[in-house]
Amino acid sequence: MAYSDFTLKQLKTNFGISNKIGKLFKDIETQAISSFLSEALTLAERLPVRSEKARSELIVMPILLELMKRNEHFFTIYSGDTLIADKSKGLSGECDFILAKDVGTFDINTPILTIVEAKKNDIEIGVPQCAAQMLGARIYNQDYGSKLDKIYGCVTTGDDWVFMKLEGDTITVDINKYYLGKIEELLGVFQKIIDYYKHQLS
């Protein structure tokens, strides 16, 4: 069993992780888009973005690189890496993207956010996988002595973005969607999450 095999029901049965819909963020400060990101996304619009691989290369990665640059490399990006939390319980597998605190190590250090590219452009399919990866990230952190109160996640089609939060034994799926067409607001959401971790991990 891998992260992608889990259902929300299995997370509840196996780990006691319930789920709900709620509002995750308020008072989001929009972030101006840089010329680098604007040009990258404009170029992406001209290309046939038909696969998950193309979305990750042309849309998701430029956004994450922009955020990394804005935050002076506070975090680093792992793409397609395997996160092994507990193989015996199925909490292991490849993650589309993991944002982790950058401490200059080769191995993944303190995952703070996982991003799942929605299969078949369907956000709902990606939610259980993201939830399982968030739980895996928490267990991974605990094993390394880092106990964060919250782990965030996100499922995206490239155009649509849904954020999630694991706190205690509850996964909250944001009632609001964010959109590539409103990139300044999307960057604001990411920045709010990163600012939270800057405070927690300072």
Explain this structure to me?
There is one protein chain. The protein is of the alpha+beta class and 202 residues long. The protein has five helices and ten strands, in the order αβααβββββαββββα. It has helices at residues 8-15, 35-45, 52-70, 123-143, 183-200, and strands at 18-22, 75-79, 82-86, 91-94, 97-101, 111-117, 150-156, 160-167, 170-174, 178-179. The strands form two sheets. Strands 1, 2, 5, 6, 7, 8, 9 and 10 form an eight-stranded mixed β-sheet that branches. Strands 3-4 form a two-stranded antiparallel sheet. The N and C termini lie far apart (35 Å).
List the helices and strands and how they pair.
Blueprint: H1 8-15, E1 18-22, H2 35-45, H3 52-70, E2 75-79, E3 82-86, E4 91-94, E5 97-101, E6 111-117, H4 123-143, E7 150-156, E8 160-167, E9 170-174, E10 178-179, H5 183-200
Derived from helix and strand composition plus strand pairing, the structural class reads: alpha+beta
Portion of residues within helices: 25-40%
The largest sheet, given as strand count, sense and whether it forms a barrel, is:
8 strands, mixed
Strand content: 25-35%
In short:
By secondary structure, the protein is an alpha+beta fold.
Task: Please give a handful of descriptors for the protein shown.
single chain; 202 residues; alpha+beta; tt1808, chain A; eight-stranded mixed beta sheet; two-stranded antiparallel sheet; 5 helices; 10 strands
